[in-house]
Sequence to fold (152 residues):
Amino acid sequence: MKKYRPNVAAVVLSSKYPEKVEILIAKRTDVDAWQFPQGGIDEGENPKEALLRELKEEIGTNEVEIIAEMPEWLSYDFPKKIAEKMYPYDGQTQKYFLVKLKPKAKINLNTEIPEFKEYKFVPVEEVFKYVKSFKRPVYKKVLEYFKKEGYL
Fold:
């Protein structure tokens, strides 16, 4: 039986939304990969609390407005190398949120334990020019869902 780590993830829109629809992607410090901010849910935390904590830890701000959340949890398996590092977990099950940065929010990647070294805002259709990893199928589902709901 596979074991999945509970996790939250954020599709972060710039403060220019809805006039301009652009999504934050960030480049990891440990591997050559771009992704959305995400992280584990701590014991006793609900997904929204975890989301705000993770955003603060990863992009230096949690000054966001939650626009929507995906109703179902999405799971993926880690590639073998990552699974070894993330033992005892075989993958993650994620709750996705669509959030918009508040006008005065400042992104700061120089956090206590920096996870990202670079970030950019890209149009929805350009996300997959950067995201090449095993997370792609989940990202596709998430973006399609928020698009279908009329947010993107």
About this structure: The domain at 4-148 is CATH 3.90.79.10 (Nucleoside Triphosphate Pyrophosphohydrolase). The chain has one domain: 4-148. The helical segments are 47-59, 80-85, 127-130, 136-148. The chain is about 25% helix and 35% strand.
